[in-house]
Amino acid sequence: MQNPGCMVMVDNCYGEFVETSEPPMVGADLIAGSLIKNPGGTVAPCGGYVAGKKKWVEAAAARLSAPGLGVDCGSTPGDVMRAFFQGLFLAPQMVGEAVKGGLLIAEVMASKGFKVQPLPRALRHDTVQAVQLETRERLLAFCEAVQRSCPVGSFIKPVAGSTAGYASEVVFADGTFIDGSTSELSCDGPLREPFSVFCQGGTHWTQWALVLGEVLRSI
């Protein structure tokens, strides 16, 4: 049963455009997400969004800027609006490629005996694909292989370290044109059991096909 007194907010990162409906369409009061993930189409250079019921969007805007200002004031640097709209236009295509990449990762890694989530060919609710690698060495090797296969910073070796918000060391691989644009192609994982790596993004599913070849040679 729904509780009319309960306000529901959804972190929609990696979930946009994967399904035919979004959280506000099924009862969420407010959603928030990042424009350097799904809705930015790998083009938006920065930014985030909130959407949902007017009351809560206005409350969020007042909190994120200043009371009384909301969305009525603020700077928009350079041609960033063009990038936002172009990214939004491209987003469904980019998300589709990321989903296909996730399906490929699941199929290949499951065939090699690794536990994956979601399972191969399972219904998708976001663009993240997890693989349980079981050892620290495999997790590090996986991320190093992904970084070597990236178009930017392929010479960089990912090193595990402490990151705010994580209870253990984390390793990241994200050789992207836009810093932090994990939807271009990236992976990360906490260095604790079961040593799962979380893969996301890919501007074309064949990127993951090439990456997986390097991964399998490395782990």
How would you characterize the overall build of this protein?
Pfam families: Met_gamma_lyase. InterPro entries: Met_g_lyase_put, PyrdxlP-dep_Trfase, PyrdxlP-dep_Trfase_major. The structure is a single chain. The chain is of the alpha+beta class and 219 residues long. The protein has 2 domains: 9-80, no CATH class; 92-218, Alpha-Beta Complex (Aspartate Aminotransferase, domain 1), CATH 3.90.1150.60. The chain is built from 4 helices and 8 strands. It has helices spanning 54-64, 80-111, 136-148, 205-218; strands at 9-11, 30-34, 48-52, 115-117, 129-132, 170-173, 186-190, 196-200. Strands 4-5-8-7-6 form a 5-stranded antiparallel beta sheet, with helices on one face. Strand 7 and strand 8 form a beta hairpin. Helix 2 (80-111) packs across helix 4 and helix 3 packs across helix 4 (205-218). The mean pLDDT is 94.
